[in-house]
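Worked Example 4.2. Consider the chain below.
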Amino acid sequence: MSRGTKAIVRLSALAHNLERIHQLAPKANVWAVVKANAYGHGAVAVANYLQDRVSGFAVATLDEALELRESGIQQRILLLEGVTSEGQSLLAAEMGFDLVVHQQQQLAWLERLHITGLQLWLKLDTGMHRLGLPLDGIEATIARLRAHPAGFQLGLMSHFASADEPDSPWLAQQRQRLAGIQQQFPDLPCSFANSAAVVGMPDTHADWIRPGIMLYGASPFAERQAQQLGLRPVMSLVAPVIALRQVPKGDAVGYGASWVAERDSQIATLAVGYADGYPRSVQAGTPVAINGQLAPLVGRVSMDLITIDVTGLSVAVGDLAELWGEQVSVDQVAAAAGTLGYELLTRRSLRVPLAYTLV
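Applying the procedure from the previous section yields the following structure tokens:
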């Protein structure tokens, strides 16, 4: 039985963010990125809600794609990492998935299978040097695939290493290379833009965009909050107060006695910790919302519990506190932990159930 800690997923906020994406890129088809269990929001539920609103879904792995298809999702599904064996190639082809190809070995598997009509997205290494086919020789690769009797459908894809840094010389170099590729192959559909590029680089929207983190109401930029981008948080992580106690001035709270009360204080203990996905690295003073008010974290985050200073606030055992969501942004908590909102959303623990609401 749940102790009351849960992640509330507001589907209305998901719809709002998708509408904002359509406003920013009105001419582009949308791959809604639902990899990593829809960034912790539940891939099947998110895809079912969005399936009539987007052109397709993007996932990282074959297992993620199969989960969607087996749940009844009929839209196109894109495998961002492609496949890792010839057997996977056959299964992915039989399921009709769009496949990203980032190395010649993947092409060799697909060419041997002689399965007709496959949609292949040739991922180009334009400077990130993580995955991708080198630009040198791409003309010969495309010519070979066009001549293959399987009749492959081809598209071009790449990924920006620093789309969140508009003044980066590396970004300028990537954009220049992509512009050249588009001019060289004007007949091939292209997909380049992630969330940051959807917001900040409309010239890269091309035919298909791949919004991920912005779909869930968090910012792809370190210096810009999601609210500034017109986005609404989809997930609220909440936990109940399970204890209240008075701590005299001079007494310490939590492991290592790292926080000492500077006054007589009322301390609330919440049923959430790093085993639930609330980061241990969050520093004292990070705000937690409770009953429409903000209370600072005190002491260290432990595996199952945290403590907050609610001195002077109206709080009772059983009240729900919001760790991140509508009142405290996940980006704010991530910054306090020295990380990104991406990480906090995707590492929600399985013991924290998802609760969906249309409101």
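The mean pLDDT is 95. The first strand starts at residue 6 and ends at 10. Compare this with Example 4.1 before moving on.
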